[in-house]
């Protein structure tokens, strides 16, 4: 894949995956959308998944802002290391239990737009070249953007498809 294909692919896959996810959620009758499924997993409803995406968008925006300002971003979050990802994700879940679904949809839609704006600010070379920006260390912006857009949206789709399937089976 060339650099140009990489940036174009990133934008296309991110927009398509986000729209597919939102279409799935809005295809569920409004009264059922807010329901939770019975599961031992962390995420029990669409809100949980959307707020997870929103918070990871927010963390990416912070990494980006701090990194582009010349600072070393605290990744994944202050007080957490990558090995603590389970605890961090549980904290995210705990923090957003009072957010209604309609607000979660608005928040994640806005954060998606902001992340896509970050992607569009950069040339193909800036996105696709490893070590182009110092804060990505040995990686490139593409890996950070992809992980927090289309790759995360694909994970969310799998979760939401399972939830939708279970909701259809409930009275």
From TrEMBL:
Gene3D superfamilies, alphabetized: dinb family like domain (1.20.120.450)
InterPro entries membership: DinB/YfiT-like, DUF1706
Protein name: ClbS/DfsB family four-helix bundle protein
Natural source organism: Rossellomorea marisflavi
């Amino acid at each position: 894949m060339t650099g140009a294909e990489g940036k174009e692919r990133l934008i296309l896959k991110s927009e398509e995956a986000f729209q597919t996810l939102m279409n799935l959620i809005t295809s569920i009758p409004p009264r059922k959308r807010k329901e939770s499924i019975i599961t031992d997993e962390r995420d029990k409803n669409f809100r949980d998944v959307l707020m997870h995406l929103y918070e990871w968008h927010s963390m990416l925006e912070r990494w980006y802002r701090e990194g582009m300002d010349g600072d070393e971003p605290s990744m994944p979050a202050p007080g957490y290391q990558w090995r603590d990802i389970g605890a961090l994700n549980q904290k995210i879940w705990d923090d957003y239990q009072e957010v209604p679904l309609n607000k979660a949809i608005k928040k994640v839609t806005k954060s998606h737009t902001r992340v896509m704006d970050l992607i569009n600010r950069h040339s193909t070379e800036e996105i696709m070249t490893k070590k182009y920006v110092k804060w990505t260390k040995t990686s490139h912006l593409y890996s950070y953007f992809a992980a927090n857009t289309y790759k995360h949206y694909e994970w969310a789709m799998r979760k939401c498809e399972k939830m939708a399937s279970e909701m259809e089976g409930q009275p």
